[in-house]
Amino acid sequence: MSGPAPSPARAGEGPLLEVEGIARTYAAPGGAFRRRGEAIHAVRDVTFQLRRGETLALVGESGCGKSTTARIVLGLERPDAGTVRFDGADVHGLSGADLLSFRRRAQIVFQDPVGSLNPRIRVGEALGEPLRVHGVVPRERVAARVAGLLRRVGLDPEDADRYPHEFSGGQRQRIGIARALSVEPDLVVADEPVSALDVSVQAQVLNLLSDLQRDLGLTYLFIAHDLAVVRHVARRVAVMYMGRIVESGTCEALFERPLHPYTRALLEAVPRPRPGRRVRAPVRGEARAGAVPEAGCPFEPRCTHPERDAACRATLPPLEHKRPEGWARCIKTPAWRVVEEMGPPAGVADEPPA
Length: 354
Ligand SMILES: Nc1ncnc2c1ncn2[C@@H]1O[C@H](COP(=O)(O)OP(=O)(O)O)[C@@H](O)[C@H]1O
Ligand SMILES: [Mg+2]
Prior knowledge:
Layout: E1 17-27, E2 39-50, E3 55-59, H1 66-73, E4 81-86, E5 89-90, H2 96-105, E6 106-109, H3 123-133, H4 142-152, H5 169-181, E7 187-191, H6 199-216, E8 219-224, H7 227-230, E9 236-241, E10 244-250, H8 251-256, H9 261-268, H10 310-314, E11 320-323, E12 326-328, H11 336-342
Helix pairs in contact: 3-4, 5-6
Bound molecules: adenosine-5'-diphosphate (ADP) and magnesium ion.
C-alpha cells in the first residue's frame, strides 16, 4: 500500500482523479523507425486532475501516449514514476476489496467495441457478466437490468439475444457504453470512442455520452486524436505531444486562442462546415523519436512559429501558466495578454487566412 485508503470524510470531496507526474517507458520491439530495445518514452511527466462530473479531453496524434495514460489511470499498468489517486486513494497501491471497488467505479469504453466483445457471447450475457461479478443487482434481477441498460443506450431489450456481429458500428459502441455503465461507475475513460465511426454516427454517440453524463453525474476522461470531436463534449482539454502535455486549458479558450504551435496546427486541420474551404494538412512532418532534438522542444522540427530559433533547440520548455486556466510548453508563446493579440488560428477564424 503506498497510499492511505480514503476516509469516509474525504470521499466525495476534492477531485475524483489526480494524476501526478506519471511516466512510462517501453523497450522498442524493433521495426522501421526504432532499434530493438531502444527506450520509447510513451508517457513523460503527465499531470492532470478531473473534478467530479466534468469531462477532460486528452487529445493528440496516434502514438503520443493517450492509451498508455488511460491504462495507467485505470490501474491496468504501473507507471515508472508518478501517482494516480482516485477519490484520494493511490490506485496502484489498492488491493483486495478496495481494488475490486475501484475496478467497478472506473470503467473503460474502447475505440473498437467489436474487439472488446466476445463474438460467441450474446450481448445480454456480456452485459450481465459484470453485474454478477460485482453483485450490482441480485441474480434474479440481472435480466431486467440488462433490458434497462439496452433501452438507456438507445437499443432494444430484445437485442440481448443477438450476437455482437449482428450490430452496426454505432450500435456496437452503444453496447460498449452499456457494458461500462452496467456497474454504475463514477469515472468512464473513453479511449477514442468514436474514432472508428462515420461522422454522422459519431454525433449520435457523442450526444448519448453527454446525456448519460448529465443524467448519471459521470466523470469522463475523453480521449481523441481529433480536436473537432472534443469541442462539444469537454470543458477542458489537454493536448499531448510525444508523451507530454504541451497545452491544457478550457475548450473555449484553446479553440479561440491556442497557446502552443502544435495545438494551432491541429486546429488548422479541423475542417469547418463552410463551402469552398480547403482542408489543410494537419502538421508538417511526423512525430518520431529519432527526429527530435534530445535537449530542446520536441515539436521544434515541425514548428512553424515565426520566432522559432536556437533557444527552442536548447532546452525543453516547461509547462508554463500563460493565462487563467491556460498552460503551454512553448518559450515563444508570451503571457496571456499578448496571446489575445495574436488572433485566432486560420482554421477557426471567421476570415480566410491570408
Ligand atoms: N506495450 C507496449 N510495448 C512497447 N511499446 C508500446 C507499448 N504500448 C505502447 N507503446 C508505444 O508507446 C507509444 C504510445 O502509445 P499509445 O499510448 O498507445 O499512444 P496513443 O494511444 O496516443 O496512440 C507508442 O510509441 C507505442 O508504440
Ligand atoms: Mg490509443
